[in-house]
């Protein structure tokens, strides 16, 4: 190893350690963390090859920083889980009932909610028009944006008068600094309105450590009461009240009563002092969805849900990571049309299914639990539909229950990772997950926990856009508001038990699971999109061609979300496979 390489590794390690600790308080740094690890993957002296392990020195280098990551991880865990507090997120802007937008430092719109689009004519990626502003304010607005980085996050920088589209009415909008998904400063424009609310006033007092006199002055400023009238109300001289007001402004680092009003407005609009540490979302009890639990040995439980005709042909469904047990109307139509009863099983650590005992033998133990479920439901034989990583568990069940699993259809499922080529064809984020899961498992929980913190904070829409940025088909699908809503509903359900579903998912995907496939002799159909960003279609086709019992169905113009993009193709494949097994 050269001196230059040693220096690069040292600097990289220091950067990783700094990022680990910073992510404990700033989950936005997750993107930078991923970038550093991805660069590390490119500089590994020996990437995984067929039948080879990674360079021991490389593994030691990664694991040397594990202690720091464990400390940072402990910090995150002690904080608990807080939800939807990222004021620079698209979700936060969308939740505002009044015009609200995120603006880049060059004055272009990054994201605007529907009221801002309708009332102000804001257009994504377009420059905000000077016509929106009162005379002389547009130039100030642009200058404020250029210097937005120097301000404190969520502190109001300035207030402007903007005219709504018909030009007959003005609204006040406040500019404040926010942090976007990639940890860059961004301007946030929100409607500026002040109203004294006792409950918020108490939070303002407690949050900033104010005295009763301080909060009385603040209430007077917000309510429009003059200092002279306040002096009469409190039985003090005007000079005393003025002195106390100056002391309050100095304590808060402010220079005027207007700034005090702005601070209070920002606090009430973007109050971050009420952490949420428990999940409150519960699975919906739709009339068409039957949610049940099965008792398993050793005081464990399995949660499963059934959709479709009660007496329809049974098909086991093993879910992916991001979508969980999402069921669109198109899928429900396919189930009704083809008389299929979908038995959707939550994997270990997901939703209400108990944790498993570890990675080794996890797929096989899951197959045993599935056999108990089939016995419970009195199902002698059935097919399996696996989506994304859920397909790995499908292979395990087909291998261990050859007399009961008559066929397997896997959609967007990965293949065993056995070569450097496969590893390097992945997008950066999944590649880093696999790298850590296989070669440095001590670091994986920290990375996953940091990612989960970003999602909890409210950056779920940005996460999906970044996750699927190399799949135009998936990005187009995400424009469907119903699909996005289903994904948001699924997230708090499958993360009920915390970050471990993500960790275990990566561990299973990175494990040597090729032996499961070798033991499958029933018909297997792979349905895979040509825009899958983790496993390119060419590598999946090559894998399928090496198996005599495999059939490949390529989907052009489809990505990782192929199950929701072309459900009719997947269910047609299930029907065709079933007919084949009956001959």
Q: Specify the CATH class of the domain at 289-415 and 514-582.
A: Alpha Beta
Q: Which class of secondary structure composition applies to the elements?
A: alpha/beta
Query: What portion of residues is helical?
Result: 40-55%
The residue-averaged pLDDT reads 83
Q: What is the CATH topology classification name of the domain at 289-415 and 514-582?
A: Rossmann fold
Query: Spatial order of the strands in the main sheet?
Result: 6-7-9-8-10-11-12-13
Using the CA coordinates, give the radius of gyration. Answer: 28 Å
Largest sheet: 8 strands, mixed
Count of helices? 26
- The N- and C-terminal alpha carbons lie at a distance of 62 Å
In total, the number of strands is: 13
Shape: elongated
List the helices and strands and how they pair.
Blueprint: H1 3-23, H2 30-43, H3 56-63, H4 66-79, H5 90-94, E1 100-103, E2 109-112, H6 114-120, H7 137-146, E3 156-163, E4 170-179, E5 185-191, H8 198-208, H9 212-223, H10 227-234, H11 238-252, H12 257-269, E6 289-296, E7 300-307, E8 313-318, H13 329-338, E9 340-345, H14 362-376, E10 382-387, H15 390-400, E11 405-411, H16 420-425, H17 428-439, H18 444-457, H19 460-467, H20 472-477, H21 481-494, H22 500-510, H23 514-518, E12 524-529, H24 537-545, E13 550-555, H25 562-565, H26 567-582
Parallel strand pairs: 8-9, 8-10, 10-11, 11-12, 12-13
Antiparallel strand pairs: 1-2, 1-5, 3-4, 4-5, 6-7, 7-9
Helix pairs in contact: 1-2, 1-4, 2-17, 4-18, 8-9, 10-11, 13-26, 14-15, 17-22
What would the keywords be for this entry?
26 helices, 583 residues, 15% strand, Beta-Lactamase, alpha/beta, disordered N terminus, Rossmann fold, 48% helix
